[in-house]
Amino acid sequence: MPVWLREHSWRQTLAAVYLSLPLRGARATPANIFCSEQYLKVSVPPFLFEAILYAPIDDANSTAKIGNGNIFFTLYKKEPAMWDSLTLANAGKEKLQYLRENAVLKAQEKAKEETEAKKITKQEHKKYALEATMRLEEAERKRIEHLKEQERQKIAKELEFWKNQQKDADKYKSIQKKGELPQEIEPLKERKNEKMNKTRIPNEETSKIRLKSTKGHGSRSIFSQNLKEEQLPAPRAAATIKVNFTPRVFPTALRESCIAEEEEWLHKQAEARRIINSDLSELEDLKEEEKNPDWLKDKGNKMFVMGNYLGAVNAYNLAVRLNGKLPLLYLNRAACHLQLRNLHKAIEDSSKALELLTPPVPDNEDARVKAHVRRGTAFCQLELYTEGLQDYEAALKIDPKNKNIEKDAEKIRHLIQETMQSS
Amino acid sequence: AGPERPQVVSHVQQALSYTVFDCKWVPRSARLLCLGSAARGTGLVQLYELHGARLELLREIEKPKPIKCGTFGATSLQQRYLATGDFDGNLNIWNLEAPEIPVYSVKGHKEIINSIDGVGGLGIGEGAPEIVTGSRDGTVKVWDPRQNDTPVANMEPVQGESKRDCWTVAFGNAYNQEERIVCAGYDNGDIKLFDLKTMSLRWETNIKNGVCSVEFDRKDINMNKLVATSLEGKFHVFDMRTQHPTKGFASVSEKAQKSTIWQVRHLPQNRDIFMTSGGSGSLHLWKYEYPAQRSKKDSEGSEMGVAGSVSLLQNVTLSTQPISSLDWSPDKKGLCVCGAFDQTVRVLIVTKLNKI
Fold it and tell me: What is any one GO biological process for this UniProt entry (chain A) (predicted)?
């Protein structure tokens, strides 16, 4: 239960009420004071002072001074009139309650309005600041542009001047050609005179004269140009120089960033060729050439071309048993399986081929495109169109110019759309 | 970017209706040539003149095969004949005033001529006028316009050796009538230096990336510096004054950008400044600084070169496509033209080069 403070004293003028409230030793801060238009409360635990004012006051302008164990309120009346008493005497409990709540609500509303107003002013300030910076930056940019424009115009003028000089020099030269003096003494003398007369030395004359002086030769006669032409050496005796190049397996240009990948690929290929699985018992029945995976691959290729797909598969199977690391064997076997409609096996083989065709280098681009296309075809024939499309798109990525792949990819996309629409 | 740094200002931009492979200034003039391939598979040579802020097309010449590269290097200042290499391996020299029939023509190579250079003309350097061509067929051939049909030097692979594309060639060391050196860069990273006086291989090295462009800083002096640019955004500057018996020439290398550096061109008026053009459409302007001592003795007492350092003066991105060709004007310092694969040729001016 709070302790009510009742020892307040007050006096009034027409416009204001002065209320003095002694705090019994307690300290008060502005947070402890709550004031609205007709309600005043001071709560400094455990003390409590509450007053329903006789008439409304202007709570925005009223002040409270805290000090000396006392709070001194200066409340400005809304309507200048003399109050009978500080508080409303006949305030019932309910009225009190109602007034209290009302006061609190009003205070909250006011607080909300104030924050709103603050937000708006803040935004306006920001906007203003932004516009000011924009204007400043615009001015700066214009200044720089202006400088650049000036520079450009200056250069353009210089260029025009130089160009006109060239034109003049050309004209002069063509006149001279027409004249075709056997000795160049006369024109040179004239030119030298011109050089002294003109304030700005034309390029052609000085450069010609300068060129002659930079030769640094003993014979610097005026006939030097003519003589030079006569002194041109005969064409060289034809000869050949044989050249060796730093060895490079790939036909593409050397790039430092691709060296590691290319090395890996070459290494893998070399490894693959060396592996021969030699502990198969059936090997003894085979002829010498049948133990060579490359020979078997060729055999398989021939049979494929002739339409003997089963035979080709057999050849590739044996080759794979001998050397399981050649990607081309799996690639070709996948093609056979496609023809035989062993679609799952075709997918397996294409996938195995792709595995072996890493790292991706320009050298194995063709093989990778074929592997993707074959796997894609197999997926489509199994009606797994999305997977098939993925493979076709991968093939397109490697070889974007291939029209057939593009057409097929389009067809698959249409098929997918149809199945989606119908399902 | 301090105010004293050279600025690259784009002066004129011209959209073309064909792929431009090479662009060259016509010496002693404000005219430039664009060489390329039209959509219908023919070659085009267009002659433009600089008029204020635009390029005016003066002449257009169409040839049966697309043209890859061209040079004025072997022609005299009066004649100004253009030597071109085309996609079919033909080397032709044209008189632009009468371009119907070439002044010189030879089917020099079996495949496209990737790069061409000329020396002995334009009043620069000494000795016979010669043109060198490098081709995808792996050979580098040197031609004399006074000798028909057969090259005066042929650098070809040894019998049985598989060929590598030659991507770039350059002349150098032409300081008197006898000396000549040809530098060739190949797609497997090989750089080879051929001495034409002794007809032998003088030096070779491999820079681990395909060599896109090589250039000596000057053709007509005792060879001083060689810049080689390559794939993967790298370039190397070799100091060519001192050759060590085993280690060859000293070099410094720089990785400028993520993409291929297509061309390097030295400023004709200052041989220590060069510009590189990149696959990302950017141009970088570099300055080479010499070391305190250009050569030193190694542990066995032989001389070896010391490479200096390269600093970036400016860079600018002009296009989204590679800038494949670049040429400085020999007459106006800082004026250059570049052609990019976005079918645009741009005339640029690099300012403040006097202050370097």
Answer: nervous system development
